[in-house]
Give the backbone structure.
Amino acid sequence: MTFTENVKKVTPNNRYIVAKSGEKLITFPDLLVAEIMIIERNSILPLPFYKPAIIGVVHYQASIIPLLLLRLVLGEQRALLTESLTLIKLSEVANELGEQRLAGIGVIVDRVVGSLTISEYHEYQQMQSRRSSSPNPRNKFADNLNNFDVSSDFSSNSSKKVNQTVANIEENEYTPIEIVLSVMLDDVWQPQRWQTSK
């Protein structure tokens, strides 16, 4: 059994939200998403004694939302913050993923690029497993790409963008957010102490 098989995953009601962070496409099961928000950078209150991945908190509808910068969790050394930030607030279901209480945190992504139905996502996974065992994966991929029906729930303008995203599956792989959160260091939420120089 591999590490990814041991990770507790959430089965969505009917779709996965797909977000981009750096070069990675991250899937969020719809049950894990409480809200998708746009916040202004100047509304963030910094938390200086925490790990860099925790960039601060924001006050929203009488609650405090801790902000987790996904690029830093994924291993990038630095990330520039734009004036407007896209965040995905995790629902109560996030507490079931492990020992960390993750409900209510805001995961900052570069942008939300679309969604996949459960059948589209499973078809992609099956295609990936066939592609890895196929001697000529490019032809196998091209044959299977026609089986996708990604425009069913989108207008004609947005279906074009989704088709382009699906067409780029060969270069980009979907990473479930459950895996990202499970490998996140336990001490990311622990305040750091003053470092004294000797």
Notes: Residues 117-171 form one domain. The two ends are 47 Å apart (CA to CA). Residues 67 and 106 are 5 Å apart (CA to CA). The chain is about 25% helix and 30% strand.
